[in-house]
Amino acid sequence: MERAEQLLAEIKETITLPLHILAVCSGYKVTIQKNHLEERLPQQVHIHYGPGCPACLASPAFIDKLLEYGKRSNVIIATYNDLLGIPGTISTLEKARTSGADIRTVSAIWDVLLLAKKNRRKRIVFPALGFESAASSTAAAILQAKIAGIFNFQVLCDHKRMPACMETVLQNKEIPVQGLITSGRVAASMGSDYFLSFSEKYGIPQVISGYRPENLLEAILALARQITHQTKKTENLFLEAVSAKGNIKSHQLLEEVFEKEDTFCNGFGIVKNGGFRIKDEYRMFDAEKVFFDVKTMEPAMAEGCLCGEIMRGIKTPPDCSHFGKDCNPIQALGACMHSEEGPCRVEFLFGRNF
Ligand code: SF4
Fold this sequence. Notes:
By secondary structure, the chain is α/β, with parallel strands linked by helices. It contains 17 helices and eleven strands. The chain has a five-stranded parallel sheet with strand order 2-1-7-8-9. Iron/sulfur cluster is lined by residues 302, 305-307, 310, 317, 320, 322-323, 327, 332-334, 336-337, 344.
C-alpha cells in the first residue's frame, strides 16, 4: 500500500477546491468502499456513483416477462445466478423456480447454447443484461447459434449503451460533475476513443481507470491535476487493458447483430439510443418476437425504493427508508440491493454509513 499512501498525499497536496467526480462503473464503488478509500480522501472529494449497474437500470418488466415465459411447459430459462433474486413486480425467478418453473443457472452464455442443443424440443431463454462488453458476447452467441442451426435459443435483450446513459446524467445536470472516471470494462472492448466526445462536448476531464485501489487513486489525482491546470482531456490510465480502438471484433459483432434503440432505464425513463435491439434478420433469436403474444402487467418498483434516484447519482443508499431494514442482501426489494455490484448491496456490505 506504499503507492496508495503516496497517491493520497499527492491528492491532498493537489486539491484545493471541492471536486465532484462521477464514477461510472459499478465496479469502482466496490473497490472504493471495500478499501475504505473515501474515508482517506480529502473532504473536498465528492464521488457520485451511477449509472453503471445494468441490472439496476432494468425495469421490473424485464423479470415479469421472464416469469411469464417460465410458465410455459416448453420453456427453460437459463440465467446467471445473480438474476435469480431480482424482484419483478410481484415475484422473482427464484420463487418461480420453487413453484416449478424450469429455471437453470449457467456460468457462461456458451452453456446456454449447449443446453439448447441438448433440448431441441424446448425453447431456451437467456436474459441478456449488461453494457457493450456483455452485448458483444451475446452477439457472438447469436451468430454461433445461427451457424449451428440452434434456433430454439432465444435472447430477452436489455443490453444498454453506456455513452447514452452517461450523456443523460450529464444533460440532466442534477449533480455538479467536474470529472468522469469512465468504465475501464466497457473501454476494454470498445476502446478509449469510444468516450472521447465527453471531454470535448461537456468540457470536463475524463479518466479511464483500472479497478485496483491505486488505479482509482491515480484516476482521482489525474482529474485533480487536470482541474488545477484547467485541461479537459480524456486520459487512458488503464493501458494494460484499453487501447484507443478497443477490440475490433467486439465492434463488428455489435454492428452485425444489433441496432441502437431508445430504451427504458430505471430512474431516467426512456433514454435515446440507450439500448441495443436485435436486428430483424436475427429475429428468430429474439424472445420478444418469438413470444410476441406474452402480455405483462404494468411494472412497478417496490414502494419507496430509490434505486432510480441512486442510478442518477442524486440519492445514496442510506437515503432509502428500506435500506438495511426490510431491504438487505438476503431479502432485496430492489435490484440495487440484489445485484452483485448493486450500490445498495455494496454500501450494506462495505459502507461506512451502516
Ligand atoms: S435499499 Fe432496497 S428499496 Fe432502498 S433503494 Fe436500495 S434496493 Fe431499493
